[in-house]
Amino acid sequence: MKAIKRIRENTKRLSKSERRFEDIYNIIFDQGSIFISETATMTRKLRFTYANAKSKIEALSCGIAHTIKKSDRYIGLCADNSLEWIVLFFAILRSGNKPYLVNLRQPASFTSSILKTLDAECVICVGEMTDFGVRAYSYDELFKASEGAEVALPPFANEFAISTSGTTLKEKICIYTGREMSEQILNVESIVAQNPDIVRPYKSQIKMLAFLPLYHIFGFVAMFLWFAFFGATFVFLSDMVPENILRTVRTCKVTHIFAVPLVWETIYKTAMKTIRSKGEKTVKKVEKGLKIAGSGKLGKRLTHKAFGEIREQIFGDSVQFLISGGSMIKKETVAFLNAIGYHTANGYGMTEIGITSVELSLSDKERNTISIGKPFKHAQYKNVDGELYVKSDTR
Fold first, then answer.
1. Rg (Cα) of the chain, in Å, rounded?
2. DSSP 284-339
């Protein structure tokens, strides 16, 4: 499998490097002709390669350095999921500055407070400009500033800041360096060795739905960094309307979707509602199929075929791997998704410690227990009176 070969090559290269963000950048964006992004509209698909993205990063970093004329400063990154978010993240680092990942779901006043604590130089916005009490630049104007600018770029910066996604609005900022993110990335090789299905393609392609916010640790590490490291394509949504999400998954042949339990539980409830609307006979048939699905490989093959119609009403057959994380998920939800043919696993992580585990068992029965799996090689778990203590090399 091409992905596994690329993972081995890239992890070897990262292991031998200084494990800085500059090293991560060079490895990711050396994957030139592979498509990094795909966005489907009603009339066409917009695609960009890793080489296209690198060109944009190099140009934007010059625009930032030329305009701001400072380095080693925090710069707010205010953008929704898009290729522009990725370009802006690395361009800030490339300009010698450090990104702070603005959480768009938190009040502007809260972000303003964090930017003040970080003594941020400015904020760069993609699209709508927001007042955070610091100088704001638009992504587009900084691109224009790069035209004809001759800039000697300072050294590549090596850290970024992220705030917790909690609802208490108590200020908590986590700083991650290139070495800590490298430790996260280097888990990929052992993850794939335990469960190759996690990089299973559909028609030779791996496409990750860019659904989780990139300014959350789950979205940034598990959804983006892990998969960018071996050249996956990120499928961006034009909006978050449920019908459009399903249409995009089917149209772009998405293979991987990572999301919070609420998403999977909504899908489960909607599917069961549709099944019940077709009468008691259909309900009993599905219930029988769900029981058979847990009875070994033969049962799995039989139910995969039997549940084809249900899959078609949800994502279709391109989806190969689902991960749930962020909070507890119900067992019946995971069991249903696994039974109908979507390999579904539960994982664990926090803003403060990064992503520390995912259930990698190939057995539906094991995954249906909603276990979060064993800790990755960089982390250790300890149960003390019902509380989970985590020690991690990424902090």
1. 22
2. HHHHHHHHHHTSHHHHHHHHHHHTHHHHHHHT-S---EEEE-SS---HHHHHHHHH
Backbone angles phi, psi at 156, to 5 degrees: -55, 130
DSSP 222: I
Distance CA 196, CA 367 (A): 15
Given a contact cutoff of 8 angstroms between Cβ atoms, the answer to whether 66 and 154 are in contact is no
Helices 261-277 & 331-340 angle (0-180, nearest 10): 70
| Nearest by Cα to 170 from 235, 104, 231, 117 | 117
* pLDDT value of position 277: 92
Query: For 143, phi and psi rounded to 5 degrees?
Result: -65, -45
**pLDDT single digits (tens) 53-103:** 999 999 999 999 999 999 999 999 999 999 999 999 999 999 999 999 999
Strands 233-236 vs 256-259: parallel, antiparallel or unpaired: unpaired
